[in-house]
Write a structure and sequence with these properties.
Elements: H1 8-28, H2 30-37, H3 41-46, H4 51-72, H5 81-107, H6 111-135
Helix pairs in contact: 1-4, 1-6, 2-6, 4-5, 4-6, 5-6
């Protein structure tokens, strides 16, 4: 098996880009998302802390690192924007949306929540794959 390597700057930029994407995405869909999770803006503000933001950026760094590793395993010359987007889509379809669908089904969650959150993670995976692919090895 051949490994093309990892570009750590690409990982950091991909994580930061996806964090920004998430902020814009959830600001745009705040009302339907709150309805889907069954909370009001006041309830969310009452329980606000910086912890979710720290967890988010750490997890997005890990996701970008794993995605870069998956792309690196395609071999030399294969870490491209196209392959990044394709790999992000495949990993999202195989691991992220399926896991979310199962968890939300057992929680009795609304499908709207799965669609909104799943759309966010699809955007994250596509964006990270694109950034990592553009940077290359």
């Amino acid at each position: 098996m051949v490994f093309a390597g990892i570009n750590y700057l690409a990982i950091v930029i991909a994580a930061l880009a996806s964090f920004g994407f998430g902020a814009l995405y959830y600001m745009t869909l705040a009302k339907p998302w709150m309805a889907a999770i069954g909370k009001t803006e006041e309830e969310l503000k009452a329980n606000s802390s910086k912890t979710p933001f720290v967890v988010t950026i750490v997890c997005e760094l890990i996701i970008a690192w794993v995605l870069a590793g998956a792309l690196g395993h395609l071999g030399p010359g294969q870490v491209t924007a196209r392959n990044g987007v394709i790999t992000g889509l495949i990993l999202w379809a195989g691991f992220i949306i399926t896991t979310m669908a199962v968890n939300h089904a057992y929680e009795g969650g609304k499908r709207t929540r799965t669609f909104i959150d799943g759309g966010h993670w699809l955007g994250v995976m596509l964006l990270q794959g694109l950034v990592i692919g553009l940077f290359g090895v």
